[in-house]
Each structure stands twice: as C-alpha cells, then as structure tokens.
Amino acid sequence: MITIITNKILGKNSTSSKRADGRASDELRPFKIEAGVLERADGSAYLELGGNKVIVAVYGPRELHIRRLMQPDRAVLRCRYNMAPFSVDDRKRPGPDRRSVEISKITSEALMPAVFLEKFPRSTIDVFIEVLEAEGGTRCAGITAASVALADAGVPMRDLVVACAAGKSEGEVVLDLSEVEDKDGEADVPVAIMPRTGEVTLLQSDGNLTPEEFGKALNLAIEGCMKLSEAQKEAIIKRYGD
Amino acid sequence: MIFIEDKQMVIPGDVLADKEYQSGRGTFKEDDKICSSLVGLVAIRDKKISVIPLQSKYIPKRGDVVIGEITDIRFSMWNLDINSPYSGILPASDVFGKEKRDLNKAFNVGDVLFLRVVDVDEVKKVKLGLKGRGLGKFRDGILIYITPTKVPRLIGKKGSMINMIKDETKCEVVVGQNGVVWVKGDPSMERVAEKVINMIEEQAHTSGLTDRVRNMLFELLGKEIPEKEEKPEATEEATDEEEEEEENGENLIQ
Amino acid sequence: MGVTIIPEIIRESLNNLVKNGERSDDRSFDDYRDIYLETGVISKAEGSARVKIGKTQIMVGAKPQIGEPFSDTPNVGVLMTNSELIPMASPDFEPGPPDERSVELARVTDRCMREAGVVDLEKLCIIEGKKVWMIFLDLHIIDYDGNLMDAAVLGSMAALMDAKIPEAKVEDDEVVIDPEKKVSLPIKEKALMCTFAKIGCELIVDPSLEEEQVMDARISIGMRADGSICAMQKGGMQPLNKDEILKAVERTGEITKKLMEHLPQNNQ
Q1: Rounded mean pLDDT of C101-113?
Q2: Which of A61, A152, A187, B248 has the fewest C-beta atoms under 10 angstroms from its C-beta?
Q3: CATH domain A24-239 topology
Q4: Average pLDDT, integer, range C193-207
C-alpha cells in the first residue's frame, strides 16, 4: 500500500530519522517488474516503483526509413520518453515537452553502451517509454524497464542497464526519493549502471551537495541499482517460466 | 571453469565460464570471461559455449530459403519483405533472363514467394533468387509467423515434427528459415495446422514437446490418441533431436 | 512481415472464410473477442480504465479541471476528448502530433459520449458563465490489434463511471474546492459503440487487425442503453448500401446489450 503524504506530515517528522513514508535511508519503495506485457511490440516490460507505473515497448532491430539517420556500420538506438496526460496531478498536455526531450536523449545514452549495435548495420532499435503514472523517479524507472524490454525483444547486450536515484531530503542523503521528497528535497542524483562491471552510463545531479554527500548518494544509488537488477532478471526468467 | 549448466536459462550479462572455454554464438568475451549477450538457453559442446536465443530477428544468410512478400516494384527488380530488419531484392533477370519485360506480368505487390538468399553483403544488402527446386510464387493457403530461432524445432529431427503435421492435416507446408510458414489444404485443416504451429512456437524451449504436439493434433482432429508403446529410448531420442535442432539453430543466431 | 501491405494470400484466405460464414479465429459474425475491463487503475487520474478487446489495449484517463464554459453554453460543463496512437502500439505508428486516425478516434468517442448525454454536463456548472468543470478524457492506445473505436468508447464509459471529482462550492464569488470530499461524476446515461467491417458481402463485428486490413468499409454505431442511436461513423474506402447500414443498426441492439454487461454494475 502506498501512503500519500502531504507537506504537513513531512514537516512534522523532521526530528525523527525515518522518512515520511517510514522508509529507512537506504530503502527502495516497493517495486515489481514484468516482461512481455504487450502483443505487437517485439519486446516489452512493465515496472512499478512506489506510485510510478511505466510501460516500455521495443521495436527492432528494424528497417530505418529516414536515410539521414542511418549508420552504415551499426544500428541507431532511438528512445522516446513520454508521459500520459493523466499520469500527473495536474493534467499534462499531450506531446513532447523539453523535459521529455532531454530525458529521451539521456535514456538513449544510458542504454547504448550495453547494446551490440554493430551487429545490425543500417537499422534502428526503437525504445518507447510511456509513463502511465508518475511519482518521482520516472526516468530511472524507464531505463530499468527499457533494459528488460530490450532483452525481451532479443536485442543482444553486454548487460542489463539498471537505474536508480538517490538524493538529499530533510538534510539526509537517502535512496529513491518519492515525489514529495523530490519536490521539497535539496538534491536528486539519478544514476544508471551496467551492474557486472559497475560502469556508469547515466549520471545527473540536480541541487546542492557537498562532495562527501555526493559520494554517499552515488554509492546508495548503485546499491539500489543492484537490488533492482535482481528483479530485472527474475522478470525475464519468469516470462519463460516452465 | 564453468559457472552454468547445459540448457540453463541465462540473460544478457550473465557470466558463463572463464577462458578455459570458447565463445560461441550468443556469447561474448570480456577480459577472461565468457558472458551471455542474449536471453536464451545455454548449449555446451565440448569446450564451446553458445546461447540459443528465445527471441530474435531473422538475419539473412547466403543459402537460406525464405518466404517473402513483394512490397515494391522498381526498375528491373522487386523489393521484398523477408520478415527481417533487412529487405531483399529479386532481380528481374532471375525471372526474365535477358529479356526486357513488364515486372508486374510476373509478380505484383502483395504476392508471396519462396526464395533463396543468393548473397548478403557487409552492410546486409540482400539479393534473392528463384532458381531452385520448389521456389516460386505461392497460391492460396495461409501464412503463419514464428520466431526464426524456433524453425528447427518446428521441422524436427529429419523433418519428423513437420511431417507429422503434414500427414495428419493433409496440408502442404513450407517453412522458411526466416520464420514464415505457408500452409495449404482444407480450410479447417489449415486452422488445425496453425494452432499446432503456434503451440510449438510457444513451447519450443520445453521438453516432451513431440508428444504434446501429437496429442493436440489428435484432439483437434477428433481422433483417438493411440496407446503409447513403452519406448525407453524415446527420452534419448528427444535429447538427440534437441541437440541437432540446436546445431541448426546456431545458424540463425546473430 | 508486411504489416502495411497485406499479403494477397491472407486477403484471399479471409475473404474465402467469410464467404463460408467463418472467421480465422472461429468467431461468429456477431462475436466480440475476449473483453477485459478494469477501472481505477491510475490513482493520479480521477477516473481511469484499462480496456482490452482481444489484443487491442487502451488506457483511458479522466481528469477534471476548472475552466471557462463555452460562450454559447454558459451553464454547462465541458467534455474534451484526446487520443494518442502512441508508437508503442504498432510498428506502423510514428511519433508525432495526432494524425487523422487519432483525431477521428477522439472526435467519434467524444460525440458518442456527448450526444448520449452520458455525463450530466449541467450539473458540472459551478458559476454560470464563469467557472465550470472541464472533464479531460485521454485515450492512450498502447496495443493495436484492430477495432480501436469500440475499445475507446467502452474504456471511456468505464473511466467516466469510475471518476470522482472534488466537491466545488461557491463562497463570496470564489470557487472553493474541498479535496477531501469527492463525488462521482453525474452519470445519467450509458452508451457504447459497435463496429462492423464489410468483407465481401458480409458485415462482421469487432474486426481484428487483419480483418481491418482487408475490409472494404466500416460502420461504427454508438447506441444508448435504451437502444437509441447517439453516433455513427462510416469509414473505409468503399461504399456501403442502405440495406447494409439498416441491418447493422438492427444487429447493434442485441450486441450492445451484451457489451453493456462488461461495464461496472454497481453505481446509480
């Protein structure tokens, strides 16, 4: 069950070390991942993290019709992050806004290092991320689900990229900010890694942190990533369950 | 040293073995380790480790026989969709020789053909051909699409699975290595074949499939399932069949 | 394989089946594929539904906003319907602004809901001429396997029935909203849509994707619970004759009764 916390209650808890929703500083919100949820797409995945609901479809490798985007020696990876109008408290007008455009770009860049693009010259791999409901941390949720969708589609990869955010809320460095913590918080650090090697493929920081705080946030985010990574694997194995 | 078992299901990034082993299809080498690049089942032959994907696109290879649909007519060639990220071209000369003729006198957009992959270049431009036994245009029938990696399973050891389907439904069946299957017969039999083929696609990675397919066929055809004779070698046969299918399957893994 | 260009073999096969009174999935001409409907699936949306007809899947969200009424109807609330054929739903959909299919889908769904009088828009007036409730219905198509219209209308009906909006009071000429007090949208009618595809000489209900790809024409009929028609839309490149249209209307009556059983039965 997700408890909706208002600003009033957040303020009252400032003296206790627990967060508004009762989580420890290194605790993720409840999550679930499913693979193979759509019929038409080559691969797909659905992810819930706290109040976030994200669905991802992958088409490809497939023919790329826009010649000027084509690469002769590898596939291009195109990501489109989009929020449904009903996914947020105040209805969002349909269509890409600047935030979605930026998130689409960094999502592509987070996933590309893992994909064996050279195996598919002159083609495209399209990743469509739809946020059906948003509650803080949708870009990380999108990346984590996208990897599962890519694997579901049979796209060869070095690893399953996984993402998680840490940040600073109420003066403390914590893992996986909820929407309320993000809005009133002091910093937000989304991170994506390839779990086997630990290489970082996405890193952003928004807000104010001392170098020590940043180091702590980075480590926390990576820990969160490793937990989500297990769920990614379970989702895929379960899809083909015997 | 090896970290997984034969036929175990793995995902991209899983470490399979160290440098004692060789990297086969569906795997890659990183430092001194062999890792999986796909979601699939591990196949270990001597010291070579491969991963047979559960899902993949068809990548055309010279010599393959495929079923394609004409999507465009250009100057002196047809363009075909071969259920792949890469389309193929069929030169008019394959049909007309050196004569100059109207291309749509032979084939039109929407026609479905059985062709051979004649050549694939480094950027995966595909040339198709019609010279060969049984190649040409299909008339009537239906089309079924399956994941290309499951074609060997559908065909079976020495064609055993596909022949069983053909015999029981009395349909003509042609299987393209690109995952497209053509079936022609009595319309109700075509649908029986379609159901069975779809079931094989869903369960291709499981064992005991041959028996379940036979039972499903008999059920759909309203026949009595015959008493199963005791065949202790049946299990071994199944393993051999699966092994050979996996070897065939390796041709389809990118 | 060619999703844009349907192979001749498949076209012939479907036409032959229809001539024999059959369909490729063993359905009758009046049968729908399996229907799945769930409401209250998105908590940020005041009303929501997830609808599946066969493999076609749509997420519908209903969200209220306070705004100005149209000048010619100053005491009536507003219903706005938007649709997105997002690229995840089909290999043929491209990202970009709504194309003509998406716009038609939204407008037909809107017409059906509005003309049927599903929502009592007069009850959504807060301050006449100045402030009314505007209900935004957003159709998010996530899997396309034929017959979007019927799925869209079914999902919209369910989302509207599910919707709860905060109570709005007028104090000193200002609108005061109490987010703690929620009331259901005033629903006074139920309406659904039934789509027929013409293949050969037959009209078959709930066309699957491949049936849509070979059909000559299509007719969608919006009907209220009492059997009256609230909307109609013909589609496709070939004509329909009068008899076909009237027969379709006749069949819609029975079919809609069965469809209505999928709606949540509790309220009112």
Answers
A1: 96
A2: B248
A3: Ribosomal Protein S5; domain 2 (3.30.230)
A4: 97
ipTM summary value:
0.93
Supply B72's token pair.
Answer: 């465009």
Is the pLDDT score of B230 beyond 90? no
Q: Which residue has the tokens 């193929």?
A: B88
Half-sphere exposure of C20 (CA within 13 A, CB side): 13
* CATH number of the domain bearing residue C39: 3.30.230.70
C1 occurs within a structural domain: no
Backbone φ and ψ of A241, nearest 5°: -50, 145
Work out how many CB contacts closer than 8 A connect B with C.
Answer: 49
Residue window 25-44, chain C: list those with CB within 8 Å of chain A.
42-44
Each residue's pLDDT tens digit, B46-65 = 999 999 999 999 999 999 99
The partner residue sitting opposite A128, judged by closest CB among C63, C82, C88, is C88
* Subunit contact B110:C20, Cβ cutoff 8 A: no
Residue C44, helix vs strand vs coil: coil
User: Where along chain A do its domains lie?
Assistant: 24-239
Which domains are assigned to chain B?
9-53 (2.40.50.100), 65-137 (2.40.50.140), 142-250 (3.30.1370.10)
Could you report the per-residue pLDDT of B134-191, keeping only the tens digit for each? 999 999 999 999 999 999 999 998 999 999 999 999 999 999 999 999 999 998 899 9
**Cβ within 8 Å of residue A187, ≥6 positions away:** A167, A168, A205, A206, A207, A208, A209, A213, A217
**C201: domain range?**
8-260
